Amino acid sequence: MYHNPVLLHRSIELLNIDPNGVYVDVTFGGGGHSRVLLQRLDGQGRLIAFDQDPDALNNVPDDDRFTLVPHNFRFLRNFLRLHQAIPVDGILADLGVSSHQFDVPDRGFSTRFDARLDMRMNPLTGNTAETIINSYSAEELQKIFTQYGELRSSYCVSRAIVKARADKPIQTTGQLIEVIKECLPERKINKLSAMVFQALRIEVNEELEVLKEMLTQAAEVLKPGGRLVVISYHSLEDRLVKNFFRAGNFEGKIEKDFYGNVLSPLKPLGGKAVIPNQEEIQENSRARSAKLRVAEKR
Fold it and tell me: Is the pLDDT of residue 4 over 90?
């Protein structure tokens, strides 16, 4: 299976589908969410999906109502305009890395395989993790490990990398793990190595900046009453989503007009984030950290 979609039916339900509406899946991947969404649409409905990974092209459904945009979702507004699809009724985002990307060794996303340090979601463009590991200063590496990996041992890890690469370049995931092991408690090597990999992946793909751009554009292209559903997998993403839904900015600073109305284009629905139940977590371990939030265009 290319990817086992998380919170599949709950996310589609919260989109509040209009059978003749226009919807966007900004993280197509294996097409799991898109296929269920298409089942809810009538003949006049449309679904436009985004995915920058060329491997996703193999999963495109044979359906005239479906259009795949093979680009990063940071270009959401431009391509919706190109396809004459503004405004839209709903947008779905299932963030992070797909199961397929984790499970293909030569993509370099996983600590389970010894492979080249790549980590690009679009393997055809941009800097690889190898470039970052071998060119960033110790201070720059420490910054990304602290901010994106929330790693307490970021100082030690960054210095160990710089010291090791002075002898020879660090080119593979196995080499990187071997270098940073000296900074990590033995019982936590797997967990903390994964945090280092997460930080590198976020830096390689500019994930948080891209997410900000998408959320801002999504609020613009939704029609009043249209919904935005976002599934995130770590606190950095979820914090941005929560703040933007609530306050219309990424700092979470609430501003009100003269009448006391919150100056935000979106209205969050529900209280706390929706999380998977234990049954789904047992069936799909990737669901363990998932949080779903939904907001409606004012």
Answer: no
Instruction: Identify the CA nearest to 59 among candidates 37, 83, 32.
Output: 32
3-state secondary structure of 28: coil
| pLDDT above 90: percentage of residues in the chain | 94
Q: Which domain holds residue 123?
A: 105-205
Question: Per residue in 142-156, pLDDT tens?
Answer: 999 999 999 999 999
Q: Give, in order, the Cα–Cα distances in Å from 264 to each of 200, 216, 219, 233.
A: 32, 11, 9, 24
pTM above 0.85, yes or no: yes
Residues with Cβ within 8 Å of residue 220, at least 6 apart in sequence: 77, 265
The upper half-sphere exposure of residue 269, i.e. CA atoms within 13 Å in the direction of its Cβ, equals 16
Q: Are strands 266-274 and 291-297 parallel, antiparallel or unpaired?
A: antiparallel
1 found inside a domain:
no
Task: Identify the CA nearest to 197 among candidates 266, 293, 113.
Answer: 113
Supply 267's token pair. 């209205």
Write out the DSSP string of 123-164: TTSS--HHHHHHHS-HHHHHHHHHHTT--TTHHHHHHHHHHH
Two tokens, residue 122: 């679009």
* Same domain, residue pair 122 and 178: yes
